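note to self — DONT lose this again. spent like an hour looking for the file last time. sequence + predicted structure for the chain T wanted, 221 res
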Amino acid sequence: MSQVTYLDVKESKEIQTYIRMADQSLSALGFTEHAFPHVTKCANTAYHLLLDLGYPARTAELARIAGYTHDIGNVINRIDHAQSGAVMAFRILDKMGMDASEVATVISAIGNHDEGTAVPVNPVAAALILADKSDVRRSRVRNKKVSSFDIHDRVNYSVQESQLVLSKEKHTVTLYLTIDTEICAVMEYFEIFMERMLLCRKAADFLKLHFGLVVNGQALL
């Protein structure tokens, strides 16, 4: 049985369709962008995080595959989309010929990425959580009319720069944010994202790292 690669998954017309139509559904619901820029960024961040930590290349590639497919469940419904996406990914990856143990790793990561139910059950899941929850940026906001922003738009639009930085020497992974406080107060960021940041802390702990959050030069976690 040949290994299913990230390139195989990325070139799958079936997966591309689910990503595109899932994002269309979220657009209709008023959510930020969850299309190819988001899933590609998540895929690459999770991949490089595990590689840099010394995990096997195949484990890192499974994280990349999980990152690329993690939001396809939104095509069914935003509610429980992690679990829906895991079931969808099982069918697709099994049909592509992926080994059962690898399918299990990927779908457990997808099924455990949403903060309502997520647990970093394996390194792939932990890397996906950190990659997904750290993707906060202005370009994900669809509505560009500041006067009509809700708090989610305002928080994302306020982020001028975001970077997830790993320090193997210090055993830390830190999310650095530059926020325009004229658009959003730092406390509003915490109002929306505190649960996500606590989940990032759990994911970092699983990888034997300390999670840090630095906003406008001030360490907050």
